[in-house]
Amino acid sequence: MSYSVRSATVRFGSTLALDDVTVEVPVGSVVAVVGGDGAGKTTLLRALAGEVRLESGTVEGPPRQRLGYLPASSGSWAALTVTQNIDFVAGIYGLVGDELIARRAELLDRAGLTPAAGRPAAQLSGGMRRKLGFVMAIVHRPSLLILDEPSTGVDPVSRIDLWRLVSEAAASGAAVLMSTTYLDEAERAAYLVVLDSGRVLVQGSYDQVRAGFPGVVTQTSEPVREEWAWRRGRLRHEYWPGADPPTGATLAEPDLQDIVIALSLARRHMVPS
Amino acid sequence: MTGALLRAEHVTRRFGKLTAVDDVSMQVRPGEVVGLLGANGAGKTTLIRMVLGLIAASSGRVELLGGPPDRERRRRLGYVPQGQGLYGDLTVRENLSFSARAYGAADPVLPPALSRYADVLIRDVPLGAQRQVAFLAALAHSPDVLVLDEPTSGVDVLAGAALWDTIRAQAEHGAGILVTTHYMQEAQQCDRLLLMADGRLVAEGSEADIVGSTTAVAVRTDNWAQAFAVLDRAGAPVMLEGRAIRVANADPAELGEVLKAAGIEASLQKVPPTIEERMLILARGAKAS
Lengths: 273, 289
Description:
Strand content of chain B: 25-35%
CATH class of the largest domain in chain B: Alpha Beta
Number of strands of chain B: 13
Strand order of the largest sheet of chain A: 5-6-7-3-8-9
Helix content of chain B: 25-40%
Helix content of chain A: 25-40%
Radius of gyration of chain B: 22 Å
Distance between the termini of chain B: 35 Å
Order of helices and strands of chain B: EEEHEHEHHHEHEHEEHEHEEHEH
Distance between the termini of chain A: 31 Å
Number of domains of chain B: 2
Number of domains of chain A: 2
Order of helices and strands of chain A: EEEHEEHHHEHEHEEHEEEEH
Number of helices of chain A: 8
Number of helices of chain B: 11
Largest sheet of chain A: 6 strands, mixed
Structural class of chain B: alpha/beta
Shape of chain A: elongated
CATH topology of the largest domain in chain B: Rossmann fold
Shape of chain B: globular
CATH architecture of the largest domain in chain B: 3-Layer(aba) Sandwich
CATH class of the largest domain in chain A: Alpha Beta
Strand order of the largest sheet of chain B: 5-6-7-3-8-9
Oligomer: heterodimer
CATH superfamily of the largest domain in chain A: P-loop containing nucleotide triphosphate hydrolases
């Protein structure tokens, strides 16, 4: 059982926002989408949520009331308290009375927000506000949870808290699609999708992505081809798409950062990979 | 030790009853990229503001370029705040001209990647390019000390790699660089790391020195959803990692007992902890005490 977008193409005016993108989000899994500004992350998320019109392709999502969505903006109302924010959204889904009280208490506790229950959202720290947004997205136990950069600008401790909440949602059976700018989060997801200018650069589990990476990466202080090299600490890494580095070169074990840079460079230099 | 570009010796700063920085000693030497890590409220910003002479220390001594951080010495400093410090209503070229003149330097030459934005208003330029402009502005007067606040956070991976090329080139020319960050990707680009928690410097050195005695365990089981719920309910700091469950600061034997009691078979294995797990444990310790 999974939700998906298949062969999706989205155009805004003359901009190709998504170009033939297929992504599947299995139930009980976290799928992380990474990519820079303008890579198409938000468009992909909104496509699966049924909020953008596809030029071509198909979307398979749950009915509206089974969908939870955390937008990249705060996702809560600044003037309402934490409790009021949750109750308002719960009301939309018909969650009221004792059931609401129990669900609210459970979620506040899990998110560590119980002490802040009476505080207006405007007075929460960035991390707390993202956790509130998450709680609001999940209050009705959605079967598909879509999170747009839940952890951007959030301090590391809140990031770990958020990742635990996301994990918990997947463990209790939701399909989760989230975007992030942090590669370590993508490494931790069951599946990762790397987007670059509206196209999928690579996708799969981190192990699959590593195993399928074409070519080799070497480490050196003096790269042979500047345009294929990038910084890693005091050294530089260099990509050899044809796996043909000079003899005696020191090979590096490429991590996700190396893989994303290498494949982005390959795409820019138009080398088939 | 002589020759440090930035130095703090037993520096403390109090705000009323709050001790924001508590007896911290650190230094940045020429050619070094030092990462200053810590959660929000750990005291990173207060420490930086003292070292730059923007606020006074309650006690202890700070030195910038071998003396007190006065105006004259601050001229040899480059600073890139997280919000870039650029003017949205000015073009890229105007922003660079403005900051170059403020420091009495020549206008910097735009690299090819930025030249197409030369006459575009900063607010209409993509974030990655904005960061590059902020760097050019901070570097125009060839500063001896660079202070960077999360320089590559939110920037796409290629643009981030280009920024690190620029940062490293400065270090190779002898500048000392202090990077405040709470992201692993940035920490791993540094030569040496400092970790602050609750106003104190709690660890210093390589990534291994920073994670210190923190432990982490990977739990692998076919019944991962139930195992996750059981461990979470037991109060363990759990998270998913692919199909495995990761638990920070845990003892494999104890976790095994908890799972066994719930009738779950699992393999447990010690794995290398992350800097973030160390920060989480520190933050919980601070709350408990």
